[in-house]
Design brief:
Elements lengths: L4 E4 L9 H16 L3 E6 L9 H13 L9 E2 L4 H13 L3 E4 L3 H13 L25 E4 L6 E6 L3 E6 L7 E3 L7 H11 L4 E5 L3 H13 L6 E5 L2 E2 L15 H6 L4 H10 L12 H7 L10 E2 L2 H14 L2 H15 L8 H4 L3 H4 L6 H12 L7 H4 L4 H15 L6 H14 L4 H13 L7 H8 L1 H8 L6
Parallel strand pairs: 1-2, 2-3, 9-10, 11-12
Antiparallel strand pairs: 4-5, 5-8, 6-7
C-alpha cells in the first residue's frame, strides 16, 4: 500500500478563507496520523486574479495555525505543458474531442435551458463530428467525452456511497480555445503527478470528483480515495463566503484569538472524538480520523471561538501567554517596552481575568503600558470634590507605606469609607479613574499593587485631579 499523501490546493486570488483552513487542517492531520506527507499546491493559473501577496498570506496563515507542508510548494502554473500533453493524449485515444460551437451557439443553448427552467448542459453537438468537414481557421475548445450510459458510484470516505447517472455529467471543457487547461484537467494531472493517495475537500467539489475520476480512468491511472467534508455555514445557516465578516484568519488574529484555540475550534467543527472537547496538537494528530467527520454542515459560531480562546487564556502557562500578548501588540497595537515586562508578567493572573481575547488583556493592561493616563471624559465627571478629597487622603497615607499589599491597603480604604460615609465603590471608583483613566478595569487593589508606590503617588497627584 502506498504511503498516505494529502494536499491542500488553494488559489492565491484572495486571503485564505476559514473553510479552506479547516480543509487544510483535516488533510494535514490525516496525513500525520497515517505517518504520511502533506503537500501545498498553489493553483495560480488564473493569471489576472492570482497575486503573490495572497500566496504569501496563505503560507503565513497556515504556519500561524500550526500547519506546515512537506517539501516545496507545488506551483500549478509551472505544470501547464503537462496538463496540455494529457489533453492531447485524451484526444488521441478518443476520450476527448474538439468542439467548434461558437459563443453565440452556446449562449443560445443557455437561454433555452433557462426558459425551460433546466440547468444548462452542452448538447454534445460536436461529439461525433468529422473534423474533415470543419474549416481550418475556426478556434476550438477541447471537451472530455463523458460517459453517457449507466451510472457511477463514488465510494466517499465521509459521505458513503454516492451514485450519479452518467448522462448528468456534461462533456466538460478540458482546454479552452486559447489552449489553456481548465480546473478539472489541471487538478487531475497534478494529483496524479504528485502521487496523491487521498483527496479530502469540501463537498461542493463532488461533481468535480466525478469528472476527475473519468479522466483518471481514461488515462488508466490509479485512483486516489476521496472524502468530501460538509461546508461551513454562517450562524444563520447560509454558506460561508469570503465576503462574510470573520472569514479569514487575519480577522481572528486581529482581535487576539490564539492559534491553538482556533485550531482546536476548527478541529471540532464537524469532527468529534468521543465527548472530548480540548485537544493538544499531539492529541489532534493521534485521534484524528475520517470516520469522526459528520455528514451535515457546521455553523461557524464566534461565541464558541471566544469561549475556546478564554479556556486557553486561563490554562496556558503565563510565560507563554505573555509571549502571545507581546507578539499580538507588536503586530496590531504597539510594541510593549521591555521595562513594562516586570509589571505586566506578575499581573497576568488578574489582567487575564474574564478576558476572552488577547485584545481584552491588552485593554486591561493599558494603564501599565502607557505612562500617561488617558482619561475618559465622561468618567472624569464622576470625580467631584468629595472624590478628589478621598484621592488626596489616600495618596498621603500610601506615601507613608514601605510596601504595597492588600493587607496594608484594606485598612486605609476602610477608614476612608467610614470617614466619608460612603461605600467601597465611593472610594474604589475615584481611585480607579485617577490611576487608569476609566471607571472600568481590574480590581483597584490589583491596579495599585501592579503600578507600585512611586507610580501611584505620581498619578494620584495628577493636575487634572487637583
Amino acid at each position: 500500500m502506498s504511503k498516505v499523501a494529502t494536499r491542500f490546493a488553494p488559489s492565491p486570488t484572495g486571503p485564505l478563507h476559514i473553510g479552506g483552513v479547516r480543509t487544510a487542517l483535516f488533510n494535514w492531520l490525516y496525513s500525520k496520523n497515517q505517518k504520511g506527507t502533506f503537500h501545498l499546491r498553489i493553483e495560480d493559473t488564473d493569471k489576472e486574479r492570482s497575486k503573490n501577496e495572497f500566496k504569501v498570506q496563505i503560507i503565513k496563515s497556515l504556519k500561524w495555525i500550526g500547519i506546515e507542508h512537506d517539501g516545496d510548494e507545488y506551483i500549478q502554473s509551472t505544470k501547464i505543458n503537462d496538463h496540455i500533453n494529457v489533453a492531447n493524449e485524451l484526444l488521441k485515444n478518443g476520450n476527448a474531442y474538439k468542439c467548434y460551437c461558437s459563443n453565440e451557439e452556446i449562449e443560445e443553448q443557455k437561454i433555452r435551458a433557462k426558459q425551460k427552467k433546466q440547468p444548462y448542459m452542452y448538447n454534445r453537438k460536436c461529439r461525433e463530428l468529422n473534423e474533415k468537414n470543419v474549416a481550418k481557421d475556426i478556434n476550438s475548445v477541447v471537451r472530455f467525452k463523458s460517459k453517457i450510459e449507466g451510472s457511477s458510484t463514488l465510494k466517499d470516505l465521509v459521505q458513503g456511497n454516492v451514485e450519479i447517472e452518467n448522462i448528468t455529467i456534461e462533456d466538460f471543457i478540458i482546454l479552452r480555445n486559447d489552449g489553456t487547461p481548465t480546473y478539472n484537467l489541471s487538478a487531475s494531472v497534478d494529483d496524479h503527478q504528485m502521487n496523491m493517495t487521498h483527496i479530502i475537500r469540501g463537498d461542493d467539489h463532488k461533481i468535480n470528483t466525478f469528472k476527475q475520476i473519468q479522466i483518471y480512468l481514461a488515462m488508466k491511472w490509479k485512483l486516489p480515495s476521496f472524502a468530501h467534508i460538509p461546508l461551513i455555514h454562517t450562524i444563520e445557516g447560509k454558506k460561508l463566503s469570503k465576503r462574510d465578516n470573520a472569514s479569514t484568519l487575519d480577522d481572528y488574529s486581529k482581535i487576539g484569538i490564539m492559534p491553538d484555540a482556533l485550531r482546536n475550534y476548527l478541529l471540532r467543527l464537524g469532527w468529534s472524538y468521543k465527548d472530548k472537547e480540548i485537544f493538544t496538537l499531539e492529541e489532534s494528530i493521534q485521534y484524528f480520523n475520517l470516520e469522526g467527520i459528520g455528514k451535515s454542515p457546521s455553523k461557524l459560531d464566534i461565541s464558541r471561538i471566544l469561549s475556546m480562546n478564554e479556556h486557553y487564556i486561563k490554562t496556558i502557562d503565563e510565560k507563554e501567554l505573555y509571549k502571545h500578548l507581546t507578539k499580538y501588540c507588536e503586530i496590531y497595537k504597539e510594541k510593549i517596552n521591555s521595562d513594562k515586562e516586570k509589571k505586566i508578567k506578575p499581573s497576568l493572573g488578574f489582567l487575564k481575568n474574564k478576558a476572552k481575547t488577547l485584545e481584552d488583556i491588552y485593554n486591561n493592561s493599558k494603564y501599565i503600558i502607557f505612562d500617561e493616563v488617558n482619561f475618559n471624559q465622561e468618567d472624569l465627571k464622576l470625580v467631584d470634590d468629595k472624590a478628589k478629597k478621598i484621592i488626596s487622603n489616600f495618596s498621603n497615607k500610601v506615601s507613608k507605606l514601605d510596601n504595597l499589599s492588600k493587607k496594608v491597603l484594606e485598612p486605609i480604604v476602610n477608614d476612608l469609607i467610614k470617614l466619608n460615609e460612603t461605600n467601597f465603590k465611593g472610594v474604589g471608583q475615584p481611585l480607579r479613574i485617577a490611576l487608569t483613566g476609566s471607571k472600568f478595569g481590574p480590581g483597584v487593589y490589583d491596579i495599585i499593587i501592579s503600578l507600585g508606590k512611586e507610580e501611584v503617588i505620581k498619578r494620584l497627584g495628577d493636575k487634572i485631579l487637583s
